[in-house]
Structures are given as C-alpha cells and as structure tokens.
Amino acid sequence: WCNEIHVGPIGHPFKLCRGQNTSIRKGHHEWADAVVEDILVQVEAYHLFDGLRDFLSLEFQLLLSYVSKLGLIYLNSPQKRRRKPNESELPDLEPECPKTPLLAEIPNAEIVPPSSAEATALLAKETLQAWEKMRGGANKLMKMYPVRVCGYCPEVHMGPSGHKAQNCGAHKHQQRNGQHGWHWQTAVLDDLIRPRYVWHVPDLVEPVLKRELRNFYGQAPAVVEICVQGGAVVPEQYKPATRLDVGIPIDVRKAE
C-alpha cells in the first residue's frame, strides 16, 4: 500500500503506512515480497544525444544494474550533430555493430542464493564494496559534469540546465503548467542514487522489533542492511545511523 520496505524475516510492527485504506488498517503494513527495484531505486533521466556541445548523460540505471545484477552494458544511443545552429533535419547515421557487454547479465531464472554461510558472507561483502564503489564513482562524475534536480519534485536532469518537459507534478504545478522552470538546482549524490532507509534489526535470532522501543532502533540504507544481515561488517560511515552503540531496553519499563 505504500513505499515502506523492511529487511528481515518478518516486517516491522510500526504503524507508519499512509497508503490506501490506512484508516481501516490503523496504519499497519501488509507485507509482501520485495524486488530488487524496491531496494535500488531506478532514477530515469532524459538522454542528451543531439546538441551543439558535448554532454555526458550519466545513465544511472546502468550503475544500479551493476550492483543489482552484476551487469554493465555500453550505452549505444544514436549520435547526431548539427552542422549549422539552425539545422533541424539531419540524416540518419549508419547503425553501428552492437558493442560487447563488459559483463554478462545473469537472467533472473538462473540466479541462485549462496549455498553456505561463508558464501553468503562473501557475497554480502562484495555487494557492499560494489555499492560503495558505485556511489564513489558517481560522486566523482558529478564534480565534472553538471547534474540538476527540480526544487519541487525528484526529477533529475544531466546537463548545464534543466529540460523543458512539462512533467512536474509537485506543489502548485498548475501555476507553472507543469514546468520545472527556474527551480532547477544543483543535485547531490542522494538525488541520483536514492538510499531506501530501513530499520536496523539488531538481533536476527529474535528479529521482532517492539513498537514501544522504536526510538532506540537505528536505520540504514536497505543495501547496507541486507549486506550486514548477510554477514558483512557495518562500514564506519553507517555506524551512527544504525545506532550500534545504543543499548536497547528489554521492555517499556526499562525504556522509561
């Protein structure tokens, strides 16, 4: 009913659902199995392939695919260049031969879970390293090539200025005819690679989180949490968010 996710054998009991029929369910979630796109949010952006200047469009779906499916393919968009500033009709280029993928993408039907605790821990460690490598590389690219985000909605655009598409549906969009207008601003890394924060489960042996002790539980990005549950070590930058140094009371009386 909403976009809340939880990493663990059972869902958390917190009454945080704001989806349809939330009053009937009294804020309780109805948990179902998630897919990889729930954890790694795909941020789509218009690809610039025709202009008077050279632009780089950061295809972050490919970066997300690197982590989620261990596959990275070359961008094979058609490239057209104007010979004159007022030229609009350009001849089609000869199609190029498809480029060889850097890594072969594993079909979903062929993906199997690790067979042992050691293999699970190794996979969790490698996934966490890939996540940090992707974020670090994207952050470096953002310092070289401009990335813009709408000041009202999550729309992201790669280029020195925002696009003119009238697809903004945020606050008072009717007055702007759906245009993002001059509200484009410099994006940050989390605008492109949006971390989905989930509650940290401190004890997988007894993974039940108590509703009355919510203030004592930490949070972490879903990718980090699932890797930690798989056996990876919590990176230093996420330790404050997971609140590992906070003692959790055994009951409400102790909490008070």
Automatic annotation (TrEMBL):
It comes from the Eukaryota. PROSITE patterns: APO (PS51499). Residues 1-50, 149-236 form the APO domain. InterPro entries: APO_dom. GO terms for molecular function: RNA binding. This is APO domain-containing protein.
